[in-house]
Amino acid sequence: MAVMIIAKSRVLVVDDEPDINLTFKTGLEANGFVVDAFSDPVLALSNFKPGVYDLLLLDVRMPQINGFELYEKFRKIDSNVKACFITAHDVYYQSLKEIFPASKEMLLSGAKRVLRKPISIHDLIETVERFRRDGDQ
Amino acid sequence: MILKGTQNVIDAEVQFFSKAQTRVDTYMNYTRPPLAIGLDPIRMSFLHSKDRGIYLRYITEITKENLSYCKELMRIVDDMRHLDAIKGNFMVSEGEYVGPLILFEHGKIAPQAVYSNISEVVEQQQYLFDNFWNQAIPAKERIKEIEEGVIPVRTRLLENRVEIIKQLKHLNNSANKLSICSTFGGMQMSYNYLFDSYNNLVDKHRRADSKEGMRWITNIDKESLDLVKIFLNAGIQIRHVKNLPPMNFGVSDQEIAATLEKMEGGKMSQSFLISNEPLYINHFNSLFDELWKNGINAKDRIEDVEQGNLGDIEVIPNSVRARELYLNLVKSANEEVLLIFPTTNAFIRQHKMGVVQLAKEAAQQRNVKVRLLMPKHESTEPLVRSLTEEDPHHYRNYDIDVRYYIEQTSGTKATILVVDRKHSLIMELRDDSKNTFDEAIGFSTYSDSRPGVLSYVSIFENIWLQTEMYKKVKETERMQKEFIDIAAHELKTPIQPILGLTEILHSQIKDVKQKELLDTIFRNAKRLNRLTEDVLDLTKIESQSLQLHTERFNLREMILNTIADSRNEIKKEYKDNIVLEFVSKSDIFIEADRGRLNQVVSNLLNNAIKFTKEGIIITTAEKKDTHVVISVKDTGTGIDPEILPRLFTRFATKSESKTGTGLGLFISKSIVEAHSGRIWAENNADGKGATFSFSLPLNN
After folding, report:
1. DSSP calls for B78-128
2. Which of B78, B325, B326, B546 is deepest in the core (most CB within 10 A)?
3. Kind of pairing, strands B336-340 and B272-275?
4. Residues sharing a CB contact under 8 Å with residue B542, sequence separation 6 or more, in sequence order
5. CB count in 10 Å sphere of residue B565
6. Predicted local distance difference test score (pLDDT) of residue B206
7. What span, in angstroms and rounded, lies between the C-alpha atoms of B101 and B686?
8. With 70 as the cut, is the pLDDT of residue B435 above it?
9. Across chain B, what does the average pLDDT equal?
């Protein structure tokens, strides 16, 4: 299960379900990531600083502000930041896949930008690692 | 000068003959010929005149009774003719006129006579005689008719009322069948003057001596109803014909009588054409038969009239006339206009023609309720908006409603107009590509028959209602989809922490016993997840909202990945004695929903693994013509014959069988069929295990 991480990558997790936040945070930390997790997207936004995170892991359907809008706002603050979306909604999953078609490099490495819940920690670590390495901004 | 006394009359006649220089013309009723022969002075006068070379002409009514006298008279006079129903008596020479008193008593000499030698009077009488002469028929012909019973072929125009009645009665009495076609006026006339003369034939018909009997065609309406009933009761057969020929006629097997007059109020016609010409008789009989054939039985018609089911249905082949009628009907609407347009083009054409504007005016000016049904199209949206939207400058107090129907469901290929629930006009669409109404329209049918019109009203109301239901169904579908989506989210959310945290704990715990417990939690969380997915899929399939997200991909690669995943599963569950193999010769590119097909293959593999203790599970993917066939062959227990017939239905699992909801194969079948493919299963020929296959069309 363990993936070797040399430099510690910093990941921001935003999901309105605290238990899911806890799960992803624990899973990622157990695999060497440094993780900040927020269950309030507005709070996440107000604490966001550019150049801090290697990757954002964003839930899509959230109150007040959805994951996609949140991503746009983060990008205004940090134009280089990468983001993965994770959703239990089939509709969001399909439409996000259309909004963010995988690049050639991503297809080759199997990097995914859009993930489905539930996801095993093993798969989560693998896709996060691949996307961090090969994914688009 | 008036002469009195029979002797004076005879003397005057004798003198008249003797004074004649060139000719004597005589006009006498049927009682006079016997006197001309039997009364010596008169007979001698005739003979003397003949001897003197005076030209003698004689007109009378030759009958059976006076036949012998007439024959004798014929030998004396130069020319003799017969005329029916002579009443007066007179004789005229080149200079004098004698008119004995009208008298029908046999053998009696007139006691009075009028005499004149005034040239104007003589001239006038001569003119009268010549006229009669021209109407009269040769005596020989009449004699033959009487002696041999031969009726000569004759066509006459009768203008004398008494004569007309006499001849019509004669026609009726001698008929072996009688067919009459007349207006209500003709019927009234017949009732007033001729009714008793029908008895004879009706009796014959009752005794079956006449097959056709007496038949009558007329236009039966409220006005004629009572009289028609009287005629029916008298044993006359009657049929209703709406459009009568512009002529009243009666035709028997022997004669035809016809008039162009309407005989309004039952007045006797001023003239009647009577003929026994076989050509006419045949012609009128066949004309009658044709009308009769298409006539409506009087009893049915009376019922319709009495119940107010009076209706008129007319086929209009001419689109110009249909257009006029169409516009006029909308213009005449007082209460309601219902309109169905079969196509968007039809709406545009008819809008251009002014129909929609007329309907709007009807609504605005006469409070007519207007409802339009049409297919939805962006090109007509501004027009429709202008009809239905509030006018900011005026208070909108008129009633126009427009609804869109789904073109396929209406299936109508005609414009349907219903006005006031009393008139319908159906205009068939012949060519929708044409620009004008006249070119686009084929046949049209107008009706004011109540049942027909109400049928169209109900068609309209049904489609109208359908549009409402369609809206509701769409709304329900949307809500259901939303629910499924939310339910999916709510069901999956708690699974994520169970799965994720169990996994993390598993990696941190060293105790084997505890690891086993966590495995159990993990396995069941996954089952719960699988079950959630299946139930959601089932809901989607049943609400017909299973959507495919197609992309082009390499099927071979996808199956390879799926098998790799399954190998991992086997490893985790320590089923080391199962081997998964994949046989596929080349890449297979396909346009399909990758995720869904992965679900199908993975489901078939899971089933195979579940029912196989040890052995090889071979997956193959093979191109066959226009299809690709994917098979998963196992060496397990095979399919229970009991389940085989309902293998791909919902919950097709045996209660004592292993885990599973019994939804997997049903979902797989639905996914394959959504791709226009087929799925099937069979037990292997060698008796070990089963093979599940599905085929998908290759659309390139």
Report:
1. SEEEE-TT----EEEESS-EEEEPP--STTPPPSEEEEE--HHHHHHHHHH
2. B326
3. unpaired
4. none
5. 14
6. 83
7. 131
8. yes
9. 87
Instruction: For residue range B154-212, list pLDDT tens digits in order.
Output: 788 888 888 888 888 888 888 889 999 998 888 998 898 888 888 888 888 888 777 88
Structure tokens at B604: 């078939």
* Residue at token pair 């996914």: B671
A-chain CB neighbours of B492 within 8 Å are: 88, 117-118
State pLDDT tens for residues B37-52. Answer: 888 888 888 889 988 8
Residue B24 corresponds to which amino acid? Answer: V
> Do the Cβ atoms of B9 and B113 come closer than 8 Å?
yes
Closest CA to B192 of B267, B259, B250, B256: B267
Q: Do A120 and B499 touch (CB under 8 A)?
A: yes
Distance spanning both ends of chain B, measured CA to CA? 123
Tens of pLDDT, residue by residue over A2-13, are 555 456 789 999
Using the predicted structure, report yes or no on whether residue B428 has a pLDDT greater than 80: yes
Give dist(CA B527, CA B520) in Å, integer.
11
User: How far apart are alpha carbons A107 and B477 in whole angstroms?
Assistant: 36
Q: How far is CA B416 from CA B326, B337, B339, B341, B495, in A?
A: 10, 10, 6, 7, 58
Contacts of B312 (CB under 8 A, 6+ apart): B242, B446, B447, B448, B449
- Count CB neighbours of B463 within 10 A: 20
Region for residue B90 given its phi and psi (left: phi exceeds 0; alpha: psi -120 to 50; beta: otherwise): beta
Q: Give me the residue from A30, A61, A118 closest to B496, CB to CB.
A: A118
CA-based nearest residue in chain B for residue A110 = B561
Residue B11: CB atoms within 10 A of its CB come to 13
> What is the C-alpha to C-alpha distance for residues B202 and B177, in angstroms, rounded to an integer?
9
CA–CA separation, A53 vs B195, rounded Å? 116
Determine contact, residues B99/B122, Cβ cutoff 8 Å: no
Nearest residue on chain A to B503, alpha-carbon basis: A121
Return the beta strands (E) in B219-305 as ranges: 237-240, 248-252, 256-259, 272-275, 296-297
- Reading the block at residue B89, the tokens are 């008596």
Q: How confident is the model at residue B9 (pLDDT cuts 50, 70, 90)?
A: confident
Rounded Cα distance, B683 and B637, in Å: 9
| Per-residue pLDDT, B329 | 95
- Nearest Cα neighbor of A53 from A31, A76, A34, A30 is A34
All residues of chain B having their beta carbon less than 8 Å from the beta carbon of residue A33 are none
Cβ distance B503 to A89 less than 8 Å, yes or no, reads: no
Report pLDDT digits (tens) over B335-364: 999 999 999 999 999 999 999 999 999 998
Which residues in chain A are contacts of B494 at CB distance < 8 A? 19
Please check whether residue A121 touches B, CB under 8 A: yes
Reported as a pLDDT band with limits 50, 70 and 90, residue B395 is low
For B497, the closest of A23, A30, A88 (CB atoms) is A23
Question: Which residue of A90, A91, A121 is in closest CB contact with B500?
Answer: A121
Nearest in space to B263 (alpha carbons), one of B176, B173, B168: B168
Residue A101, preceding bond cis, omega within 30 degrees?
A: no
DSSP H helices, B354-414, are: 355-366, 381-388, 407-410
Backbone phi, then psi, for B435, in 5-degree steps?
Answer: -85, -30
Taking the C-alpha atoms of residue B418 and residue B423, their distance in angstroms, rounded to an integer, is 6
CA distance A1 to B626: 43
Q: Which chain B residues touch A13 with a CB distance below 8 Å?
A: none
pTM for this entry: 0.46
CA A84, A87, A93, A95 torsion-angle sign = negative
Is pLDDT of B389 > 80?
no
Q: What pairs with residue B630 in β-bridges?
A: B621, B694
B517 vs B47: CA distance, rounded Å: 157
